[in-house]
TrEMBL record:
GO molecular function: ABC-type transporter activity
Keywords of this entry: Antibiotic resistance, Cell membrane, Membrane, Transmembrane, Transmembrane helix, Transport
Biological process, per Gene Ontology: response to antibiotic
Location(s), subcellular: Cell membrane; Membrane
GO cellular component: ATP-binding cassette (ABC) transporter complex
Listed name of the protein: Transport permease protein
Pfam families, A to Z: ABC2_membrane (PF01061)
Domain ABC transmembrane type-2 as annotated: residue spans: 28-271
Ranges that cross the membrane: 30-52, 64-87, 108-135, 141-167, 179-201, 250-268
UniProt KW Cell membrane keyword: yes
Keyword Cell membrane: yes
Membrane topology of the entry: Multi-pass membrane protein
Similarity comment: Belongs to the ABC-2 integral membrane protein family.
Lineage start: Bacteria, Bacillati, Actinomycetota, Actinomycetes, Streptosporangiales
Amino acid sequence: MAVRLDAEARVVAAVWRREITTLLRGRLRLVLGLAQPMLLLATLGIGLGAIVSDGGSGVGYVTFLFPGVMVMAVQSPALATGASILGDRELGFLRGMLMAPVRRESLLLGKVLAGTTAATCHGAVLLAFAGAAGVPYDPALFTSLVAVLVPASFALTSLGTLLAVCLPGPRTFQATTGLILGPLVLLSGVFFPLSVLPAWLTVVTALNPLTHAVEAARHTLTAHLPAAASDTLFANLRVWGLRPSTVEELVALTCFGALCLFLAVRRFSRPDQQEHPSAHRPPGHGAPARSCERRWLCLLHRNAGRRGLRHRLALGHHAGPA
């Protein structure tokens, strides 16, 4: 059992390294992914901040907006994981991965962990601009905000992975994620306090995972602001008169991500995930996989073969003929 777990951990680490390397190559995409939240913070924070009253607390609208913009910043790399799965499937690279004698849970877990890592770092970059938003440069505050981004990134990455294994192609994936994320963002409390919503809509927002990410980040920030900041603008989410704690919201995000990952693994295990209309050709023919990806596949198969040999030796069997 220990030998098998060690081998699966190596597979997860190999997939994680491959995904992180691929993401780092797309530096322009990472920069553009930060452009939207930065523009929102600058335009809405300054524009609406001029007409939204701070209630005498001295804390402006741009400070209220900052935690939500941080959560929005994790969306791009989180959903890039799903796009990566669809890209691998179109190139036939995914088929090569599935032919390796490894558990499919390990393949998906490696991708999700890589997406979570990239998304968390992506959102944490915005902390460099915290001072411009009226957020104090406090190491304890920054550490707490990054801790909030981890389950938020995990939840969004798992959701993107679930959509990727359920949808037929990249275009459908882009259209579906746009359709889903629009309402999720608008009803998460990024742009306005949830206290202004009617009671029935508040219940709907409570089922939104982004709501709990934004509220957890905002509650963490409020603890480091003047006491007057806990006015209507910074009022926390209430469901049936109850206010979830930050820990409860982070647990809810983690459970949501785990559920999406579980469903993605179930769907990923179906035989039709091995095939794609453009993947009937072996890698290297027609739409070829890159040479580095072919080498990575060889390494994955070799590690998996070594795992099988070590597992047989652990059981007391001989690897070759007697």
